[in-house]
Amino acid sequence: MDTAFTEEQNEIRRTVRDLLARRCRPDEVKAAVRTPEGYDTALWNALARQLGLPGLALPERYGGTGCGTVELALAFEEAGRTLLPSPLLPTVALAAPLLVRLGSADQRARLLPRLASGELTAALAVPGSALSSALGLTAPGPGPGWAGGGRAGGVQAAYRTAGGGAGWRLYGEVDQVLGGHSAGLLLVAAHTGGFTRSRTLLFLVDGAADGLVRTRRTALDETRPVARAQLRDVKAIRLGGNDGERADTRDGERAGEPGGDMAHELASAGPRVAALLAAEAVGAADGALARTVEYVKVREQFGRPIGSFQAVRHRLADVYVQVQAARSAAYYAAWAADGPKPLDQDGEAATAGGTALGQALEALGSAAAEAVQLHGGVGFTWEHEAHLYFKRAAGDELLFGPVHRLRACAADRAALFGPGEGARGEEREAEHGRGHERRDERRDEREGEVGAVRWPGRAA
């Protein structure tokens, strides 16, 4: 196995790094996050038109470059190094791969070229605040709770056959949608089929649709904006369906309710997303470390640079080792995501992705903490650039972690400690159900005995 990067891959890294070094400095990052879009639209257009970054991993027939996860991970690493605020993560890592894999031919032909050119941005709306659970990063598999439950909550979908034309309508609210306030297209996970036959489907919603209300929320990490999306009788198109979807009544299904459950498809996308997030976190950790090293070379105490003190060197050396180990894990996870079985939820890619993301988030947390402390008094001021990295570390831990759950889920998939927590949870749930059945049986027996026996003192 050759672990060296090709000349093309190194060129991708160098080109993205050079552009971001010129146009994404800390002051420019702070200015960009305060715009209505939450990012520098001119820089996004440059990344799209000059470098083709949004279409880097999209098929060539849709205007993309046709590269793999490794090339995309290198771009994400450089974006993380400067804490680039952009629609890159929600559009390229979350929404576009689902559209490529699950979209109909018409949907792919109509939307993917616009995504590849950067003209259209997209976001994935998963009800609740459990994106990591939906992607299978902190849970062994999709359960009923991550999308808001089956009986109520989350987003509900109903197929309407009258009153304004046949079609899907969505109702509900999504609290945390990455990049959702400015995305031109939303991929919304919603329940349909009622409680007894509940299934999760993905729907395409136009960002300008009637009844869609989006509000940008205050976030700890301003470089990763989130929004609340409220759907009030919003028209939607099923991902993989079409505008004129007809009733499908086979197997007793009602009009417009297909049989597939997209919850497993979302979980299958998790390993690739984890690899890209890990690469981005490694880039951020390396950026924080590099800035700290430069500072300790010029900051003097007792007549000498503080970087010359052995205690400071040891602390930075520990962070360096963590970052290098996390980088190796992220590269391996990206390679595994393009392996022979990238969609196996219990395979090598799923285990490598969760492990790499946990290690990268831990390295980023350590690098950000040392950056704040070793910058001294100025580093503790909220306005200092060290806090951009600190906020990114804390924000990613909240959105995609925590680290111990990422590692526990990866260990569970690899069966490192015998039957996983997911298997034990299923066993407990099954035993709980059997307990209910036994109680019902005993109650029925008692009721039968009462009806058959004449108690003393009672009239016949």
Question: Average pLDDT value?
Answer: 83
Structure summary, number of beta strands: 9
CATH architecture of the largest domain: Beta Barrel
> What spatial form do the alpha-carbon principal axes imply?
globular
How many individual domains? Answer: 4
Q: Please, what is the CATH homologous superfamily of the largest domain?
A: Butyryl-CoA Dehydrogenase, subunit A, domain 2
End-to-end distance: 88 Å
Largest sheet: 7 strands, mixed
Structure annotation, total helices: 15
Q: State Rg.
A: 25 Å
H and E string: HHHHHHEHEEEEEEHHEEHHHHHH
Helix content range: 40-55%
From the helix content, strand content and strand pairing, which structural class follows? alpha+beta
Strand content: 5-15%
Question: CATH top level of the largest domain?
Answer: Mainly Beta
Fill in the CATH topology of the largest domain. Answer: Butyryl-CoA Dehydrogenase, subunit A, domain 2
Q: Are there runs of 5+ residues with pLDDT below 50, and where?
A: 246-259, 420-430, 447-460
